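dumping this here before i forget
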Amino acid sequence: MGQTRVLNQGTRVKRRRRGPLARFGLMMASGVALGLNLAAAGLLGVGILIATTLADLPRTDSLREVRLQEPMRVFSADGVLMAEFGAERRQPVPYAEVPPRLVDAFLATEDNRFFQHEGVDLIGLGRAALSFLQTGERSQGGSTITMQVARNFFLSPEKTYERKLKEVVLACVIERELSKDEILELYLNEIPYGNLAYGIEAAAQIYFGKPASELTLAESALLAGLP
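structure:
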């Protein structure tokens, strides 16, 4: 039933062997302790990273005063546009003048829960994380329209975890600073379409020869898919 160990003094002491349940309990306790230590270390690391990131974030209130770059335009005496000069062709339009069908096309393409989330779509991020685990490739970013505004105005396009964290934090701050309509107005007037076109008005003029307010549903859907 047990092992006997002889001490130098000649005293005999019995040492009982631990049963299977006792050994299993010790293993479980050790595993839980290790897991808690790793979790604590992970939380500490995340906390340090977030604190470092927050200290390095730009001020988002500047978005209320942003002036989007427009080209120099040359008109004839009777008001006809003759030429444009500049690296970006853009003609900003107020959100109130954007047709609802065009807004719906962008929401369906980029962020169909835009009016439900607070800057970050956890479902979208979870889907992107699952896709990365399955394929090993960053084929889905999980970025909301608000996160894209944060990236386009404040961050670089590099694909790093630090930039993604900054994007998430900035999106949450932007949602507190601006209304949903203001965020959409910035987004629709900033996104690039190629051929030096930036924003929906310039893209509508270049690709369809008409203002954005006159785009059909099919043209709106095509425009939403270009970026």
